[in-house]
Amino acid sequence: MKIKNKIAVFSCGNEEYVSQMCAALSLACKKNDFVPYIISDVDNPEKIELIHKLGITLLQVNLSEMFQVYNKNWPSHMFWYFIGPEALHKVGHKFSCYIDADVYCVNELDLSWLNDDIEIAARSDRDREFNSGVVFFNNEKMVEKKLFSVVCDAYKKCSEDKFLEWHGGLIHDQQILTALGNKNKFNDFWGGDVSFNILDLDSTWNYVFQHMKNRNENYINKEYSVLKDEVKFAHFLLSRPWLPFEKWGGQHGLFKTEDFPDGWVVKTNDGEPIRKTRIQFVKDWREEVRDIEGKHQIKLFGEFDELDHLVE
Asked: Between these two residues, 190 and 248, which has the higher pLDDT value?
């Protein structure tokens, strides 16, 4: 297979998230001419066989010792995608796209904007604080500017007690990503000599279903029938489409309600005015996952719960 100049799509995670990563990558490749990779320390033979059956290349690395300070809600693997551009450049890819395991590629992508002038591209939540659910890299420029080495320097500075005192919490990968840019508080704190140009993508490239001020007002009130054709990547965040409906949400910074005893992603209907839209996107994701399982004669997930009554 000739891969020169083909765009790599990759994900990172521990053994627990192999099925989710496989689903995310397979759905992205179903609609686009990507070459898929997983960067992980997974060594379970059954998991590795599953990855290979789906035509995904596993790049085995272990960066745990390098990233030892992290939020207890996530493993250190959340930082590992920063090695991706260098690793994928070595195997012939000029550009790469990192996606989280809970990201759903909804439509075929127009990537004509991805040119030599781009360094990094991602969506910001606010004040140029970037979300790492979907991140595009110019691998050549990342190698030239020694991205991974710069990240390690920034991580080291932001792993000190001074960061904890200043920010009030342990460092997260999205704060490192943001620090790589300029004119933001995380870059100011780090104070590094190297900065990267980060193109701020519109919200359809990393769409979340709750309202973000000054970011997705043009989309948040649209019905599913319209939004499904406009969104490039849907980011389920803590709704976790592979879990039953009542298990959506999580324990990190979320509130609990009668409907979602394990937590939900937003607190009010104003925050997510058309909740059925999220549910319909989950239904689409599940249907496409079942198609992939059937095509490759594999099983990624157990039986899904019924959601039809929630969108009627």
From this structure: 190
